[in-house]
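2.7 Reproducibility. Because tokenized structures are sensitive to small changes in the input, we list the exact sequence used for GNAT family N-acetyltransferase, including any N-terminal residues retained from the expression construct. No trimming or masking was applied before prediction.
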Amino acid sequence: MFSILVSSEVELRLMQQKNSHEIFQLVDRSRPYLGKFLPWVKYMKSLEDYKEVIQQWLLQLAENKGFQSGIYYKEELVGMIGIHPIDWAAKMTAIGYWLAEEHQGKGIITDCCQKVMQICFEEYELNRLEIRCDPANKRSRAIPKRLGFIQEGVLREAMNQNGQYRDSVVYGILKSEYKESL
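Resulting structure tokens (single pass, no recycling of outputs):
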């Protein structure tokens, strides 16, 4: 089983079919908060929806296109982090993450992003990482800034959030910049 220790309290674990109920419950009770920023939340309405998406995540891993993992804080699933399918020709990908509102402000996502950056740059030998955020999500936007990412621009109306087009702020970091920050 895919498991990566991030700190003494935080671990990343590969999501498997047996986790579908756990992730469904977390998203369902976090729906009002997560739905403000993440367009996919409104489509994930049943246990079956999660079984299908977990199968896609496992296929992504099997095809060497990246991974999606649950974030466990003190043995409890509190969010997710992963990378979008890797563009191996360009040697780049994007990190995506979300965390239940009640677990924010503890440095969990920052620590998890640092671990994912290490995997991407040191193990996968990628050259570029991106993080894209909703401009209104100040907490999410603070993460890439804290980790040395540079705001590169705004993709205008790049997201459809509950029928409204929203901008997406793009942050990027290169392997050379990551090495300098060590």
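The chain has a mean pLDDT of 94.
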